[in-house]
Task: inverse folding
């Protein structure tokens, strides 16, 4: 088959020693960048961009792509160990991953996220090869009305994200949506709730909120109790996932891969949303949904596979349409442009070595990442043996650096601190942080999509129902909203009661 | 055990030290003594960011200083620009001077915390960006006239993807609307890439976007450029007219990127940079790199010239465009 010949050609490109070396550097830098909270792949890519002048285009793209998916491996590390998401895409991993670590199963959690990422990475490469051209055209069908309908669906399934009271989760969702309105309104340029602060012009930063809500608040809670009692005193039970873990994780990894890849293809969806969707799906399918949030390995395996699959998925529109799906892919395109290559429909014909070399490097890079990450697990897990009163200062330092470095803006540190306090109070009063993060991601996108749709339709609401993709999403959302009324009246009532 | 966690600590130490270095490098007799920070008021990956990252090394060799590029995105460039406007005028904090935050935001966005005329010292204009008005490859409009004729006959029927309100593409469309006496509805998107996606997907009829975002689609026949909003024709597409040739002189808004610093920057420092920038922009290697980006043209002007250009536009937007905009709700 033609495709396999092309793929073999790709491997012949990657297996040249220099390209292998660049691939290794890429995934290594990616892992480090992923581990450090706040330093996203975009920041690392932009620092390395000038270096790539002196490197042939194939090596450039292999190096830079390595950073983007390497970061997805690294991002889970601090989530699981310290409850600080290394990337926004690892927020969901915090929920159960950190609980697993507290039960002495950090090794299993880290192991399954490395294997899950590897499996997802490998499968999606083949999806990329066979499905890229038709899927790229499908992604174009997503205009503002389709985005809006998809966001509505997202908000509806969010209710299932809650591990405790649904009422509390809804309150937090509203809080998140309100926070999402802060900043300069993209549609009219009108400032909203910014009180003349230039920092707030672009809204409240997701990274700052996430680091505050998860990292800082966890420290505050622990400082309150740990001087009497060391946490993590439980014995480490095995460094790698056992057979039972594997049995429970295979399904979530497979579903996470498919979800992540398809959602990653849609430009602008970001890598964050697929992880939440994967979490909710696993929770819905699980026989023990009530145990989610207490350290279920499914809830680590699924989202971790999803964020890796999504980062391969984002390459579909990037390479076949030349459309960046985020800052990181925009920089990949920039690197190609510096070399005079035009990413887009003609790339495969004009520069087959770049395209197939990149595809093959994804595989080589994933193997390297697995080899690189498995021995590191033993080392990471030892961090947990540091007495907490030493560890927490390190965690706070990481939080401060992470929140500063995203925009180089000292006020962002203040925002992070405020959300640390908010997160602490939320924990005290049994409100969960994850729905807030998702609402903050979805809210502004949903608002913009809604208003853009109305601009396209001159104010008519019909546009949401006459377009087939958008209509079917809305119908699904309606079914999800109504289903408890018919199916689980009793369970809903119990849940509501729990919230009182 | 301690030694192993040392890797982590040392990473943090390095990061902290680098941060401190930036702060410590002020006060100098023989400038430049330390690294110079140039703030890019946009996020990584945009045209401005890629422009700086691909040329800064050559600038550094001409000015004989280390240049550190720092992204401070937000508010359409206002956040980063305002940071530099308030910085110490010691020549160690400069800014990528873009036309959006300096000539457009002060007119179209309320509460911009600096005065682009008084609070900024302009050093040079470096390059201009070429914007295009484009349609899909299968669009019935083959020329600009056909689109204008249809828009005149069907007010508000045509939708045009632009970047956020108050951005260059939006202003171009508003000026075009006014001068052609028609109504094409602007639909604001977050980035040029998003505008192109929505054009190709058939969600909007037209799109005003910078050339690099669009180029490959034009070559593949998926999109067609009706006109360039640039002072002269673009060498890659010699057959496509400019807005000026079609009688819409004012839509050919010259936008671009330059270098500036806070007010009160010592003249010696300004002239040192101005001269170094002039030499950089004449460097054949730099011109080659810039041309490869596609849609960016070297357009060197000294500080005074750039300031005059920006202020002329600012005045025109204030007096001519704002009154003709539909009232804000």
Result:
């Amino acid at each position: 088959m033609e495709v396999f010949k092309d793929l073999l050609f790709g491997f012949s490109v990657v297996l040249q020693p220099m390209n292998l070396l660049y691939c290794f550097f890429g995934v290594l830098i990616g892992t480090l960048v992923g581990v450090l909270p706040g330093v996203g792949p975009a920041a690392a890519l932009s620092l390395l961009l000038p270096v790539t002048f002196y490197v042939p285009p194939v090596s450039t793209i292999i190096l830079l792509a390595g950073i983007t998916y390497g970061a997805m491996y690294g991002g889970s590390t601090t989530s699981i160990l310290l409850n600080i998401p290394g990337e926004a895409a690892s927020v969901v991993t915090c929920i159960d991953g950190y609980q697993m670590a507290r039960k002495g199963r950090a090794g299993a959690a880290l192991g399954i996220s490395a294997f899950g990422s590897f499996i997802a990475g490998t499968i999606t490469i083949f999806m990329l090869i066979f499905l890229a051209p038709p899927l790229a055209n499908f992604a174009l069908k997503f205009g503002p009305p389709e985005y809006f309908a998809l966001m509505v669906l997202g908000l509806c399934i969010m209710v299932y994200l809650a591990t405790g009271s649904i009422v509390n989760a809804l309150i937090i969702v509203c809080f998140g949506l309100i926070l999402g309105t802060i900043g300069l309104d993209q549609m009219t340029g009108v400032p909203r709730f910014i009180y003349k602060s230039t920092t707030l012009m672009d809204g409240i930063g997701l990274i700052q909120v996430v680091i505050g809500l998860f990292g800082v608040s966890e420290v505050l809670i622990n400082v309150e109790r740990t001087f009497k009692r060391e946490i993590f005193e439980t014995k480490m039970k095995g460094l790698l996932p056992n057979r039972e873990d594997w049995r429970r994780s295979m399904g979530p990894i497979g579903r996470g891969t498919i979800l992540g890849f398809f959602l990653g293809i849609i430009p602008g969806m970001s890598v964050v949303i697929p992880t939440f969707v994967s979490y909710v799906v696993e929770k819905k399918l699980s026989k023990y949904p009530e145990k989610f949030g207490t350290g279920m390995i499914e809830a680590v395996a699924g989202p971790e596979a999803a964020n890796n699959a999504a980062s391969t998925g984002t390459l579909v529109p990037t390479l076949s349409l030349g459309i960046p799906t985020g800052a990181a892919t925009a920089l990949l395109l920039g690197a190609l442009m510096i070399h005079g290559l035009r990413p887009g429909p003609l790339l495969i014909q004009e520069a087959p070595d770049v395209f197939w070399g990149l595809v093959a490097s994804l595989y080589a890079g994933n193997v390297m990442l697995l080899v690189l990450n498995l021995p590191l697990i033993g080392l990471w897990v030892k961090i947990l043996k540091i007495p907490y009163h030493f560890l927490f200062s390190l965690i706070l330092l990481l939080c401060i650096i992470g929140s500063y470095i995203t925009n180089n803006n000292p006020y962002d540190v203040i925002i992070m601190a405020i959300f640390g306090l908010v997160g602490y109070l939320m924990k005290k009063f049994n409100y969960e942080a994850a729905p807030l993060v998702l609402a903050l991601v979805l809210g502004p996108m949903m608002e913009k999509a809604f208003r853009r749709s109305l601009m396209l339709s001159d104010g008519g609401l019909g546009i949401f129902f006459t377009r087939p993709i958008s209509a079917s999403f809305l119908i699904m959302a309606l079914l999800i909203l109504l289903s408890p009324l018919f199916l689980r009246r009793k369970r809903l009532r119990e849940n509501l009661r729990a919230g009182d | 055990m301690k030694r192993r966690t040392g890797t982590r600590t040392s990473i943090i130490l390095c990061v902290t030290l680098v941060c401190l270095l930036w702060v410590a490098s002020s006060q100098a007799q023989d400038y430049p003594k330390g690294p110079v920070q140039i703030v890019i008021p946009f996020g990584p990956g945009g045209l401005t960011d890629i422009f700086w990252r691909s040329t800064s090394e050559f600038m550094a060799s001409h000015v004989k200083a280390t240049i550190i590029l720092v992204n401070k995105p937000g508010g359409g460039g206002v956040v980063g620009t305002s940071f530099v406007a308030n910085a110490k005028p010691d020549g160690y904090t400069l800014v990528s001077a873009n036309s959006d935050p300096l000539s457009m935001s002060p007119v179209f966005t309320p509460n911009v915390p600096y005065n682009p005329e008084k609070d900024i010292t302009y050093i040079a204009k470096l390059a201009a960006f070429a914007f295009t008005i484009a349609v899909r490859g299968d669009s019935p409009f083959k020329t600009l006239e056909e689109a204008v004729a249809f828009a005149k006959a069907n007010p508000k029927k045509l939708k045009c993807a632009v970047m956020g309100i108050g951005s260059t593409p939006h202003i171009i469309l508003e000026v075009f609307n006014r001068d052609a006496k028609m109504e094409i509805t602007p639909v604001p998107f977050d980035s040029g890439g998003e505008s192109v996606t929505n054009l190709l997907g058939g969600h909007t009829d037209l799109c005003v976007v910078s050339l690099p975002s669009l180029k490959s689609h034009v070559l593949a026949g998926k999109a067609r450029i009706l006109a360039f909003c640039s002072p002269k024709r673009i060498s890659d597409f010699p057959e496509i007219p400019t807005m000026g040739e079609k009688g819409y002189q004012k839509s050919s808004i010259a936008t671009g990127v330059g270098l500036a610093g806070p007010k009160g920057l010592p003249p010696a420092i300004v002239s040192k940079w101005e001269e170094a920038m002039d030499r950089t922009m004449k460097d054949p290697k730099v011109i080659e790199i810039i041309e490869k980006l596609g849609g960016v043209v070297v357009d060197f002007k000294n500080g005074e010239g750039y300031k005059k250009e920006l202020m002329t536009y600012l005045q025109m937007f204030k007096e001519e465009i704002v009154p003709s905009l539909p009232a804000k709700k």
Remarks:
- The longest strand of chain A covers residues 183-184.
- The radius of gyration of chain A is 22 Å.
- Residues 2-499 of chain A form one domain.
